[in-house]
Design brief:
- The chain is built from 13 helices and two strands; from the N terminus they run βααααααααβααααα.
- A two-stranded antiparallel ribbon has the order 1-2.
- The chain is globular.
- The chain is mainly alpha-helical and 349 residues long.
């Protein structure tokens, strides 16, 4: 494994491919919502497989974010960095949350007579008003941490990040996971806060990107990724089947199965994405990349509206895997229209 020289994020073609794949995966997770209704019927068996297969969506999104922003100081100041983040993510988040508030008010999902302003404000701020917006507060915290990581000199960054990744994984993720699975009565006093939570994906993505992984290293990561996937898949199936309800022992984005699987998927997508972006399909993914953020913002509205109009069978495999394609198409059409209006295009950068 050899370190390679960092390049501008605008010149990393495979990230466009991964950006599209992760956005599609997010939509699949939400059209596969029947997973959270445990049943002994066959639909839940396939729902569990789909859930586990596409579980990499959010972790890979955060890994992409870290790679894209870690070298921002090469392009603009920290002040401009925050202004861009406010303009490109915070303003759209608040705008679409308010649109969601109106959407819920019209549909009768919110009763202003029993809901106070502070409750609405808190639900928007925490990303709970639109439940799929939960990742925005996490993303904003990541934005606040990026300048700290970016300030580490590039010649030391790889060794520092690798150290943080290894120590953080062991103390924050692996040991608590083993204690939980084995049912040990141990209160672990260790925690590396500097890489806690979803920051492990930010740092992990940068480490993977800045190193040329040889075949043997990739194979080891793939094996660990497969182990993580199987732990998630089989563990959730067995525990949930026994309990008759969803058991989340092996779930959670920052849980060990998810981390192993997401890192393995990211390495895999990096390998195939590099090749795909050198071929004819590169134009398609470059086109779709410009609509991935609108997909994150709009897919909840589209799913909700389509479901109310057409009353789909949400347990149908065609619905769960086919609707995300339709959502991308609808999002592209709506986004192109909104971006033609000078004032409104600010909510869909």
């Amino acid at each position: 494994m050899s370190e390679k020289r960092p390049v501008s994020a605008d010149r990393i073609p495979y990230l466009s491919f991964i950006q599209v794949v992760s956005a599609f995966a997010v939509v699949v997770l939400h059209t596969n919502g029947c997973f959270w209704e445990y049943s002994s019927e066959s639909y839940w068996f396939t729902a569990n497989i789909i859930e586990c297969l596409f579980y990499f969506a959010v972790p890979v999104f955060f890994m992409n974010t870290g790679i894209t922003l870690i070298d921002y100081q090469d392009r603009y100041s920290t002040k401009e960095y925050f202004m861009k983040r406010i303009r490109k993510t915070f303003v759209p988040f608040v705008s679409w949350s308010l649109i969601g508030l109106c959407f819920k008010a019209v549909s009768g999902s919110i009763d202003f007579n029993t809901t106070s302003f502070s409750q609405i404000f808190n639900s928007i701020l925490a990303g709970r008003l639109i439940n799929v917006y939960w990742f925005f507060p996490v993303l904003f915290c990541i934005y606040l941490c990026i300048p700290l990581f970016a300030s580490i000199s590039k010649n030391k960054r790889n060794s520092v990040f690798t150290y943080l990744l290894c120590c953080g994984f062991i103390t924050n993720n692996l040991l608590p996971f083993l204690i939980n699975v084995l049912g040990l009565d141990i209160a672990l006093p260790l925690s590396l806060q500097v890489i806690s939570g979803h920051l492990i994906f930010v740092i992990g993505g940068v480490v993977i990107h800045t190193n040329d992984l040889d075949r043997r290293t990739r194979l080891c990561i793939y094996i660990l990724g497969l182990i993580g996937f199987l732990l998630h898949l089989i563990g959730t199936y067995k525990l949930s089947s026994s309990a008759g309800s969803i058991v989340s022992t092996y779930k959670g984005y920052t849980n060990v199965p998810s981390i192993l699987y997401s890192f393995g998927i990211f390495v895999f997508l990096k390998q195939i994405g590099t090749r795909i972006m050198e071929g004819r399909l590169s134009r398609l993914f470059c086109f779709l990349k410009d609509y991935t953020f609108p997909v994150y913002l709009m897919h909840w509205f589209i799913i909700t509206a389509l479901q109310r109009v057409f009353q789909f069978d949400t347990k149908s495999l065609i619905y769960r895997l086919g609707l995300p394609v339709l959502i991308f198409i609808i999002t592209i059409c709506i986004t192109r229209l909104i971006r033609m209006i000078p004032f409104l295009k600010r909510i869909l950068p």
